[in-house]
Design brief:
The protein has 291 residues and is of the alpha+beta class. The chain has two domains: 34-123, SARS coronavirus X4 (Immunoglobulin-like, Sandwich), CATH 2.60.40; 148-290, Immunoglobulin-like. The chain is 15% helix and 41% strand. The chain has helices at 2-25, 119-123, 148-159, 282-285, and strands at residues 38-42, 48-51, 56-61, 66-70, 77-82, 90-96, 101-108, 116-118, 168-172, 175-185, 188-197, 203-214, 223-227, 232-234, 239-240, 244-253, 261-269, 276-280, 289-290. The strands form three sheets. Strands 1, 3, 6, 7, 12, 13, 15, 17 and 18 form a nine-stranded mixed β-sheet that branches. Strand 17 (261-269) and strand 18 (276-280) form a beta hairpin.
Length: 291
Amino acid sequence: MIMKWYRVTAIVLMISISLKIAAQTGNTFSKSSYIESYKLEVTYNKTTNLVFPSAITSVDRGSSDILVQKAAGVENILRVKADVKDFAETSLSIITADGKLYSFVVDYSKQPSYLNINVAKISQQDSAINHPMVNKEQLIYSEPVMDKSALAMYSDSVISKKSNIHSIHTANSKVLIALNGIYIHEDILFCRLSFKNNSSINYDIDQLHFYICNKKKAKRTASQEIEIKPLFITGDTAMIRAVSKQPWVVALPKFTIPDGKYLSIEIMEKNGGRNLFLKVKNRIIIKAKSI
């Protein structure tokens, strides 16, 4: 009986120790630590606009099946659109200047329920975020670094300058974009681009993006992207006619690229598939010539 009692006691003690270890190593997050994701529907031929209560500082797409772009001249409106139809469910994360994180689960819909969403109003009921209300008219504008007349003057001067880099180019279905010059004045970078359409079909431009992207990313993980908004663009950014070429100069706030990242220049064709993606490394950016 004594031996049996010892055995039972030993077993109970071992179980107790195991449960204690499991409790120490298997802690989970409490429900109060979760930040709920919002459901967002987007479609292919319409743009969804998200209005945030503070300036957008970082955008993270779970998939390249969706397109995102800050509205021109406005820091707190994000435009979202499907790049392909019927894409698989994905995610979208936005960080704003006030340190808030917004998370969305994005689905494709032929007819989204809403196209213009004031994020502050839907989030004010979320105690984990608790944002103040903003009116639809409350927009946050970028402060101009240089007035438009000066930007236009320097951009025009760059068009005729000799190239200071070897042409970096990419092509898709007889359409080509090349970066063949980078110049700087004060805190403005001027990028000279050359666009050629060797096809017999006009190239209608839908969107133009400049992103800082990670060089390496694990398979099936989101790629963090920081958008750089152009201050000024000279050239026809609506259409490149068939069998023609056109120079562009894009003025950007000065930047350099950290290790492990690159500048992505993305041009999307309206109602078409001849999208172009140009990668530019930091060693090219630092060759910028003063003007």
